[in-house]
Sequence to fold (388 residues):
Amino acid sequence: MPDASDTKRRLRVLTLVDRLGTSGGAERLATQIAMRLDPERFETWYCASRWSEDGPQPEGADLVVESMRAAGIRVLGLGRTSSRAAWRWWPLVRLLRRERIDVVHSHKFGSNAWAAVVAPLGRVPVLIAHEHSWSFEGRPLRRFVDRELIARRSSAMIAVSREDRRRMIEIEGIDPEAVTFVANGIEPLVPGDPRRIRDELGLAPGDPVIGTVAVLRAEKRLDLLMRAVASLAEEFPRVALVVAGEGPERPALEALARELGIEERVHLLGHRTDVPDVLAALDVAASASEREGSPLAVMEYMEAELPVVATRVGGLPDLIDDGVHGLLVPAGDGDALAAALAELLRDPERRRAMGGRARERRRAEFDLDVVVRRLERMYEQLVEEARR
Fold:
């Protein structure tokens, strides 16, 4: 039976992630959720297992940690450098027991798997495993771990798109009652300056500009987007591609731009803290990914009143109605991607109308406060059920 004082105190919630929320949509969302929990009802901890205060710091780490601590969140780094270093988890187990944590909310497969082991050792009554993008095709071991370890140990699993939930149930064999669909959400963006980035890059006001915000990883298929832009050059001689984000694919993308002869049209901006200004410089936003969950970047495009050309994968059809807020194309189809981009570049009025409807939908359906309030109710309900 719980101590009587436990029913009176604020619930204690620990967010578990692999890396700090300095880049990557899932990591940023996990950080934002932790920072927006109602401080009158929740005490909040945040653990990044592959980060250490004494180790190398990713760009923007100081600001993220400072912001969390200013919001009253206690931040812990485990400094894991290898998946085999199981002993690195012991400080977290001790914290879970000492602080009598009520809820561990883990994010993404690696943290979900470890949380399924660590939370019971730490005597935590509620574990919520948040999967941000289902990508287990051809990976029987991951599907097995998801079903037999994570699902069995979790009080609830969260899928960020209806398609992800369907796959977790139909392909992995997870009990439908165990998987809840919770769409992602973002905060409203501050208005961007439409001229600043264009001036920085030497782009004229009338130049057609396509853009994307993404970690430069293979599954984002920025190579396909780059080839599509190259094919538009004859009809749109001044077309440019702007990419905000950093990642391991940068050398390959730079080489491809040279091979296609469009290095002057392609602007790889790296990590940016002025995303609203970047989005304000665009005419059309693009997402060429081969898989996605519920991408925050696409919600940011919608908030910036941009029409979106996106692949019909994961949660993207949950965000974009084809022909209403943008255009959807098959994944991996470079010709269809180029045709959709050209269709919108030819029609400024249609772009503006789509962008306006996209912002309306984002604000009505994909708001961060809505997500946080829903999770707060979930925490309280699951803890109450565990106590009973």
Q: What stands out?
A: The first helix runs from residue 25 to 36. The radius of gyration is 22 Å. The chain has 15 helices and 13 strands. Residues 325 and 354 are 5 Å apart (CA to CA).
